[in-house]
Amino acid sequence: MQQYEYMITRQRKWMLYLLALLVLGSAFTPYPRIFLGLLLGTVIGFHNLWLMQRKIQQLGKSAAEQRSTKGIGTFSRLAAAAAAVLIALQFEEYFHLISVLIGLMTVYLVIMIDFAIFRLKD
């Protein structure tokens, strides 16, 4: 379980670094709409990552105690992604829709890169 906690901490750290870069990009580049879309998608993706990690911890604890659990929150994560798309569609002058979708997927890219780096170190 300790290794899982380290993985969670690393992934959250990388996501916070990425969010900081996106904030800087939206403030100092001539493409604020694209960076704001990436920022919106990445923030919602980070929220989904946090939800998934919390639900997986609850699932692991309930499995160790041999009791059942409801699920891992797929519907809430899909609803958050749909909300991000609806926000981007409502405020098209501020958010680029394709950037929001790419931002939603950056979480999975961070997970894969973290996994690859961790496995190469071992």
Question: What's the topology here?
Answer:
Blueprint: H1 2-28, H2 32-64, H3 74-90, H4 97-121
Helix pairs in contact: 1-2, 1-4, 2-3, 2-4, 3-4
Count of DSSP-assigned helices: 4
Beta-strand residue percentage:
under 5%
**Cα distance, first to last residue?**
18 Å
User: What is the chain-wise order of helices and strands?
Assistant: HHHH
By secondary-structure content and strand pairing, the structural class works out as mainly alpha
Radius of gyration: 16 Å
Sheet of most strands: none
Unreliably modeled segments? none
Task: Give average pLDDT, whole number.
Answer: 92
Written account of the structure:
The chain has helices at 2-28, 32-64, 74-90, 97-121. By secondary structure, it is an all-alpha fold. It is flat. The mean pLDDT is 92.
Short description:
This protein is mainly alpha-helical and about 120 residues long. It contains 4 helices and no strands.
Question: Which terms would index this structure?
Answer:
mainly alpha, 84% helix, 122 residues
